[in-house]
Write a structure and sequence with these properties.
Radius of gyration: 21 Å
Catalytic activity: O-succinyl-L-homoserine + hydrogen sulfide = L-homocysteine + succinate
Distance between the termini: 58 Å
Strand order of the largest sheet: 1-7-6-5-4-2-3
Number of strands: 12
CATH superfamily of the largest domain: Type I PLP-dependent aspartate aminotransferase-like (Major domain)
GO molecular function: lyase activity
Shape: globular
CATH class of the largest domain: Alpha Beta
Order of helices and strands: HHHEHEHEHEHEHEEHHHEHEHEEHEH
CATH topology of the largest domain: Aspartate Aminotransferase, domain 2
Structural class: alpha/beta
InterPro entries: Cys/Met-Metab_PyrdxlP-dep_enz (IPR000277), Cys_met_metab_PP (IPR054542), O-succ-hSer_sulfhydrylase (IPR006234), PyrdxlP-dep_Trfase (IPR015424), PyrdxlP-dep_Trfase_major (IPR015421), PyrdxlP-dep_Trfase_small (IPR015422)
Largest sheet: 7 strands, mixed
Pathway: Amino-acid biosynthesis; L-methionine biosynthesis via de novo pathway; L-homocysteine from O-succinyl-L-homoserine: step 1/1
Number of helices: 15
Function: Catalyzes the formation of L-homocysteine from O-succinyl-L-homoserine (OSHS) and hydrogen sulfide.
């Protein structure tokens, strides 16, 4: 049976694995900085690109390659570049595809550090940015300029789980000769495949659901051989934002259970969202699986599940939010997400804390907002832990 015939769950376990002569069953880790050549001619041919093979671990390593090939197969992409973190994946895309004079349209509903990366770092090199409401297609179209090179979007977005129509946004980008880049961190290819919907490039923080247990930092860029395999790869080779072999091995192990884990995250998150929506202390719940979510129908259309992220607004503002967080005994108070352990945070003072009050207001980051990355513990225990604070407001 060819790899192209495998279902998603099989690809997540088997794709990209090349056994060495030792015949190992699990993927091998190659913790080496360099590789030995059989001759000076072979070294010259590899450095010159005339012969494939390992050269130097900053940009060629078998374990990292296994991860890249597996994730590319899951996303349906031609090429994947693995990076040292999710933010370095976004950085590599921007450095690899943009030049001075280019323009980028970005959703306001992105991770706070993404906004700051674009404004404070990439912007210093002559790239202009416009920020628009994620779900407002008219705003996206109005922001386009003749020199718009990229549209960047996170969908579902952190932390309000807003969703944009990927196919419609891709069509808009392509009519303007622009590229659509989608951060697929919160759905993963287990629930959503942006490339199949017309996106040009997908980025990931592998640190989140791809790992699934909060063990390592990593990122990835998936797309075609020209833009990702050449342009973004060039940033990796020359800039060194490299994934380590050990981290790549961890992510390979994470991918093996991705299909099962995402289904379980979705089940728990749906139950928690419904429970929170019925609690008198909760003003609003943000979860695409609820019929009350503004993009519920769109989520049903372009995702195979609603994800593991649930956010809710408390009636008592920041004081109430901190009280609920501090009353928990089992949930982990941390800004990371995508873990088997349920995590809880206050976005206004953590993940989006460096944004200005105006930026927070534009992104819907209220003082009473609490974000929960729903893990795989018993849903009854998750609810009971949150109830400690909710029932005392």
């Amino acid at each position: 049976m060819n790899e192209s015939d495998w279902d998603f769950a099989t690809l997540a376990i088997r794709a990209g694995h090349e056994r060495t002569n030792e015949g190992e069953h699990s993927e091998a880790i190659f913790p080496t900085s360099s590789f030995v050549f059989g001759s000076a001619a072979e070294a010259a041919a590899r450095f010159g690109g005339q012969e494939p093979g390992n050269i130097y671990a900053r940009f060629t390593n078998p374990t990292v390659r296994y991860f890249q090939e597996r994730l590319a197969a899951l996303e349906g992409g031609e090429s994947c570049v693995a990076t040292s973190s999710g933010m370095s994946a976004i950085l590599a895309v921007m450095l690899g595809l943009l030049k001075a004079g280019d323009h980028v349209v970005c959703s306001r509903a992105v991770f706070g550090t993404t906004t700051l990366l674009l404004q404070n770092i990439i912007g210093k090199f002559g790239v202009a940015f416009s920020f628009v409401d994620l779900t407002n297609m008219a705003a996206w179209e109005a922001a386009l300029q003749p020199h718009t090179r990229l549209l960047f979007v996170e969908t579902p977005a952190n932390p309000l789980t807003e969703i944009v129509d990927i196919r419609a946004l891709a069509d808009l980008a392509h009519r303007n000769s622009s590229l659509l880049v989608v951060d697929n961190c919160f759905c993963t290819p287990a629930l959503q495949r942006p490339l199949a919907l017309g996106a040009d490039i997908v980025v990931h923080s592998a640190t989140k659901y791809l790992d699934g247990q909060g063990r390592a930092l990593g990122g990835a860029v998936v797309g075609d051989k020209e833009r990702v395999g050449k342009d973004v790869y060039g940033v990796l080779r020359n800039g060194g934002v490299t994934m380590s072999p050990f981290n790549a091995w961890i992510f390979l192990k994470g991918l093996e259970t991705l299909d099962l884990r995402m289904k379980a995250h979705c089940d728990n998150a749906m139950q928690l969202a419904q429970w929170l929506a019925a609690h008198p202390a909760v003003e609003q719940v943000y979860y695409p699986g609820l019929a009350s979510h503004p993009q519920h129908a769109l989520a049903q259309q372009q995702q195979s599940g609603f994800g593991g992220l649930v956010s809710f607004v408390l009636k008592g503002g920041k004081e109430a939010a901190w009280k609920v967080i501090d009353y928990t005994q089992m949930l982990s108070i941390t800004a990371n997400l995508g873990d088997t352990k349920t995590t809880i945070t206050h976005p206004a003072t953590t993940t989006h804390g460096r944004l200005t009050p105006e930026q927070k207001a534009q992104s819907g980051i209220a003082d009473g907002l609490v974000r929960v990355s729903v893990g795989l513990e018993s849903i009854r225990d998750i609810q009971r832990d949150l109830a400690r604070g909710l029932d005392n407001l």
